[in-house]
From TrEMBL:
<keyword id="KW-0479">Metal-binding</keyword>
<dbReference type="InterPro" id="IPR036739">
    <property type="entry name" value="SLC41_membr_dom_sf"/>
</dbReference>
<dbReference type="InterPro" id="IPR038076">
    <property type="entry name" value="MgtE_N_sf"/>
</dbReference>
<dbReference type="InterPro" id="IPR006669">
    <property type="entry name" value="MgtE_transporter"/>
</dbReference>
<keyword id="KW-0813">Transport</keyword>
<feature type="transmembrane region" description="Helical">
    <location>
        <begin position="416"/>
        <end position="442"/>
    </location>
</feature>
<dbReference type="InterPro" id="IPR000644">
    <property type="entry name" value="CBS_dom"/>
</dbReference>
<dbReference type="Pfam" id="PF03448">
    <property type="entry name" value="MgtE_N"/>
</dbReference>
<comment type="function">
    <text>Acts as a magnesium transporter.</text>
</comment>
<keyword id="KW-1133">Transmembrane helix</keyword>
<dbReference type="GO" id="GO:0015095">
    <property type="term" value="F:magnesium ion transmembrane transporter activity"/>
</dbReference>
<dbReference type="InterPro" id="IPR006667">
    <property type="entry name" value="SLC41_membr_dom"/>
</dbReference>
<dbReference type="GO" id="GO:0005886">
    <property type="term" value="C:plasma membrane"/>
</dbReference>
<keyword id="KW-0812">Transmembrane</keyword>
<keyword id="KW-0460">Magnesium</keyword>
<keyword id="KW-1003">Cell membrane</keyword>
<keyword id="KW-0472">Membrane</keyword>
Length: 477
C-alpha cells in the first residue's frame, strides 16, 4: 500500500493510488504457459498473484479513493479491481461512484453479492441506491429490513431527486428541552458514536416538535446545571422535505451551515440535512449544466461501449446536422456574391464565430443567474435591454477594428463598413438569443442549460452568414 504522505494533497494522493493499481494490472499480464505448468494452472497462478497484490495495494483505502480509481479504469480492468475491493466496502463504494459507473458495477454482481453489499447501509443511503438495483432483488431487500428502516426507505423514495426528502438523513441526535446540559451530555455518552457532520443537537418537546438547536460548543462549555431550553438557539434554519434542494443548497452556503433539521408541516422533526449531501448536489448540478450545454442526454461513462455512447450523443448531433444544413443553405443563397468577391468567404467565419462566442458568454451568465435565483423570467425585457446595449458597444468597437483590418487587407472601404455593420448586428442577435433562449426555457419549465450552447451557435452561424452576405449583396455588388 502506498502511504499517504502529508506533503501531498488529496488529488496527488489519489493519482498515486491510481498509478499503484495500474502498475499491478500491468505487472500481471495474461500468462504464457511454462513447461512445467498447464496454461490453465498458469492463468490461475497469475490471477491469484494479481488478486493478492490488489488486496495489498487497496488495504485501508477510503471508499471514495476506490471509487476514484474505478471511474478511471477501462471496463475489463474495472471488473478485476471491483472483485478485489476490501470486504464490507462494496455498498459505500457504490454510493461514491458516478451513476454510469455504478450501473456497470452492479451489472457485474449477482443477487447475493448485491444484498451483501447494501446490508450495512443506512436507510437514507439505501434509498440512494434502490433505483439502480435490479427489480428482482428489491422484494428480498425490502423484506430484510426492519419496520422502521423499511418506512424510512419508502419515505425517501416518495420524494423527487430535487427535493430535500430524497437526501435527508434519519440518523440524528435529538434531546428533550427540559434536560439540563449535564443530563444532555450524559445522554450523548450513551451513544456508540455521533452521526457524521454533527455540529448541533436538535431540541424537541414531548411531541417531537422542534423547539431549537444546541451547539456542541455550548453543550461542552456551558454550566452543566443550566436547562437546555434556556440556552438553546431559537433562530433555526429549518427545511421541509418538499423544499427544492437547490434553494436549500444556497441557504447552506449563505448561512455557513453544516447540518440543519428537516421538519414536517406540524414542525415535528423528521430528519436532517448535512453539508456533505449539499456538496454532492452542487457538484452534480455543475456537471449537469456542463453536460446539458453540450447536448449530452445523460451522464456517460468515459469507458462505456460504443453503442451506449452513440445513444447518448445522437440527439443533439441530429439537431446540429439540421442547423448546419440550414447554415449551408443560407450561404448557398449568396453563391453569386461570393463568386464575385472571394474576400467574403474568408471574412464570414469571423462574423459567425464572434457572434457564437458572445452568445455563449451571455447564455452562461443567464443560466448561472437562473440557477442561483438571482433573476426570474419576468425580468426578460430588462435583461434584454442591458445585454443589447453591451452588444452594441462591443459590436461598434470590435466590429470597427475588424472593419479597419478588412479595409486594409482588401483596399475596399465599403467592405470594411459592411464588416463592421455585420459584426454589430450579429452581436445584437447573439445578445437577444443569449437572454431569450434560457429565460423562455425556464418559463416553460425546461432546464435552461439544455443544449443552450448548441442552439446559440446554430443561430449565430446562420444569422451571421445571412447578415454579412446580405449586406455585402446590397452594398458591394
Amino acid at each position: 500500500m502506498i502511504p499517504a504522505a502529508d506533503s501531498h494533497g488529496a488529488g496527488a494522493r489519489r493519482l498515486l493510488r491510481l498509478a499503484a493499481v495500474q502498475k499491478v494490472l500491468r505487472s500481471h499480464p495474461s500468462p504464457i504457459s511454462p513447461r512445467d505448468m498447464s496454461a490453465e494452472a498458469a492463468a490461475s497462478s497469475v490471477a491469484d498473484e494479481q488478486a493478492d497484490a490488489l488486496h495489498q495495494v487497496m488495504a485501508g483505502w477510503h471508499p471514495a479513493d476506490v471509487a476514484y480509481v474505478l471511474e478511471r479504469l477501462p471496463l475489463e480492468q474495472r471488473r478485476l479491481v471491483w472483485q478485489q475491493v476490501p470486504a464490507g466496502q462494496d455498498g459505500e463504494i457504490l454510493l461514491e461512484v458516478t451513476d454510469a459507473v455504478r450501473e456497470s458495477l452492479i451489472a457485474d454482481m449477482d443477487r447475493s453479492e448485491i444484498l451483501e453489499a447494501v446490508e450495512p447501509l443506512d436507510a437514507d443511503e439505501l434509498a440512494d441506491l434502490v433505483e439502480d438495483l435490479p427489480e428482482a432483488v428489491l422484494p428480498e431487500l425490502m423484506a430484510s429490513l426492519d419496520v422502521d428502516e423499511r418506512q424510512q426507505v419508502q419515505a425517501a423514495l416518495s420524494y423527487r431527486d430535487d427535493q430535500v426528502g430524497a437526501l435527508m438523513e434519519f440518523e440524528m441526535v435529538a434531546i428533550g428541552e427540559q434536560l439540563s446540559l449535564g443530563e444532555a451530555l450524559a445522554e450523548l455518552r450513551k451513544l456508540e458514536a455521533l452521526p457524521s457532520q454533527t455540529d448541533k443537537l436538535f431540541i424537541v418537546n414531548r411531541s417531537r416538535v422542534l423547539t431549537g438547536v444546541l451547539s456542541l460548543e455550548r453543550l461542552l462549555l456551558g454550566d452543566p446545571g443550566q436547562i437546555v431550553n434556556a440556552v438553546m438557539a431559537l433562530d433555526v434554519n429549518t427545511f421541509r422535505a418538499e423544499d427544492d434542494i437547490y434553494d436549500v443548497a444556497q441557504a447552506f452556503e449563505r448561512y455557513d451551515l453544516i447540518s440543519a433539521p428537516v421538519v414536517d408541516a406540524t414542525g415535528r422533526l423528521v430528519g436532517r440535512l448535512t453539508v456533505d449531501a449539499i456538496v454532492d448536489v452542487i457538484r452534480a448540478e455543475g456537471e449537469s449544466e456542463a453536460r446539458n450545454r453540450g447536448g449530452l442526454r445523460e451522464e456517460e461513462d468515459i469507458f462505456a461501449s460504443v453503442w451506449k455512447s452513440v445513444q447518448n450523443r445522437w440527439a443533439w448531433l441530429a439537431v446540429n446536422l439540421v442547423t448546419a444544413f440550414i447554415a449551408s443553405r443560407v450561404i448557398g443563397l449568396f453563391e453569386g456574391a461570393i463568386e464575385k468577391l472571394v474576400a467574403l468567404a474568408t471574412l464570414m467565419p469571423i462574423v459567425a464565430g464572434i457572434g457564437g462566442n458572445s452568445g455563449n458568454q451571455t447564455i452562461t451568465m443567464i443560466v448561472r443567474a437562473l440557477a442561483l435565483d438571482q433573476i426570474t423570467p419576468g425580468q426578460l425585457r430588462r435583461l434584454w435591454g442591458k445585454e443589447l446595449k453591451v452588444a452594441l458597444v462591443n459590436g461598434v468597437v470590435w466590429g470597427g477594428v475588424i472593419g479597419l483590418v478588412a479595409w486594409g487587407l482588401y483596399r475596399n472601404p465599403a467592405l470594411g463598413l459592411v464588416m463592421t455593420a455585420a459584426m454589430t448586428l450579429n452581436l445584437l442577435l447573439a445578445a437577444f438569443a443569449g437572454v431569450g433562449i434560457p429565460m423562455l426555457m425556464a418559463r416553460w419549465g425546461r432546464d435552461p442549460a439544455l443544449g443552450s450552447s448548441v442552439l446559440i451557435t446554430a443561430l449565430t452561424d446562420s444569422g451571421g452568414f445571412f447578415i454579412f452576405l446580405g449586406l455585402a449583396t446590397l452594398f458591394l455588388m
